[in-house]
Amino acid sequence: MNLRMKWYNNKAGFYLFALLTTVLMACGEKRNTEKESRVAVLPYYDEPSFTPLWLSKQSDSITGIHRIPNFTLINQMGDTLTEKTFENKIYITDFFFTSCPGICPKMTQNMTLLQDAFLNDADILLLSHSVTPELDSVPILRHYADAKGVVDNKWHLVTGKRKDIYNLGRFAYFIEEDLGFQKTEDEFLHTENFVLIDKNRHIRGIYNGLNKTAINQLIADVKTLQKER
């Protein structure tokens, strides 16, 4: 074998090795992005400090755990939604407004990731409440939904009475980090938090809606919640 042939074989072997290495690294990265839940069973949350309560489904204490109360809202299609819309569903909720120039676009982008992750899973829904319901009418929500790729009946953008929405945010979902119990509906509600709700309307997690790692954790936690019996 002459020197030219040896050089060719060595070069070919190098490129083959490099290609295999790249493929293996890519596979490893793909596996690493599929985050696992931190725990085998998710805790319950009963009050604004979000202190976790570790209870079994058979525990008598679950009877008294905080639940999301009844509500009536209107979505981007003009349909009336109530708590019964989410009966036997797991859902993820947040609070936003369509004219928000700050955190809301990123939150909406990350909600889209959640929509994509569970697009074909009828057991998972998304619920985004407008905190400026007097401005975010049904036509405005419809336009926003179309612009952002919202899938109707999977992801509900809702408006309604300002007092009802603010009470839900502060006293039902405990959405504000500063607990919010001293605030009134006149004080603006603005938060990046996403909240995970189980099929019995119990709070099971709170996540930073601006943080990609938190979103991946939320996806993993939803899958853990789906395994509950």
From TrEMBL:
Family matches, as InterPro entries: SCO1/SenC, Thioredoxin-like_sf
CDD domains listed in its UniProt record: SCO
PROSITE patterns, A to Z: PROKAR_LIPOPROTEIN (PS51257)
Superkingdom of origin organism: Bacteria
Pfam family membership, one: SCO1-SenC
Family: Belongs to the SCO1/2 family.
Name of the protein: SCO family protein
Organism (species): Flagellimonas spongiicola
